Amino acid sequence: MSRHPMPFSVRALVLGVGLAWSPAFASDDDCDESVSARTLSQHVSTGDVAFADLDESGFQVARWNAGQAVHCLNETLSTGQVASYHRLEALASFLDRDHAQTVMSFKAVLSVAPGYDLPLSLAPDNHPLRVDFEVASGLAAGALVPLPAPTEGSVIVDGTPAEGVPLDRPYVFQYIGADGAVAHSELVRPGMPLPDYPSKASRSGAGSSGGGGGGLSLNVPLAVTAGAAVLASGGLYLAASGKAASFWDTTTPPAQLPDLRRQTNTLQGLSLGAGIVAVGAGAGAVVVGSF
Fold it and tell me: Which residues contact 228 (CB under 8 A, 6 or more apart)?
């Protein structure tokens, strides 16, 4: 098989726009009853089985139930439970053909559970989902944004007491009140604002969006989205370069060339799509913040 130049799919440009998307799950006030961490794990397990069985409708029901459960939790999650939930979100983004968000969710899995390996039951060898997982595995850890100290209680991020939150990937935020009960629980995606909780910053007004004076100001959610998109674009580009190198390597068996071409084209498209998101969000962060 000849190694002719690889075509580029324009449709891949739109796949990066889901970085700031989030499903409209219920707020804490909408919870009729509290939910245990075990119940969340059961929904996640149901979703895993449905995905493996190619039961998309069953998967979407399980994913919705899991999202509702996160908002109504009455206890903190362990890191293992958090990692499983991030994986479920990765599977959901994959079914939505939002590969950029799939990569970010897998990065969250690996950040919480280093050394995690995607089961073959979910993604056999050469499955497109495994390409997204490999991209996530190659991304470097991102920066953390310091959290304002709570005036009472504590903040748990991805199952661990935290003093900062990641910029470049989703995380599960839980605020524990002074009475030790979970007062707020939420999945936060890149570009979403930090959930409200009692803190010195909120009392002093440091967290308010208003401001006076001249000059440009910054829209933080859009700036975070831009930063996450830049990281995703860079990681996807490096992964595409690696696949391309294997494609052009004369020692690569001809039987592997079609898969390598497909993977390279997909990764190149995702990289460019994430780059476009980064440029648009970066410009919007300054323009919107200046009004």
Answer: 19, 104, 142, 167, 168, 169, 190, 191
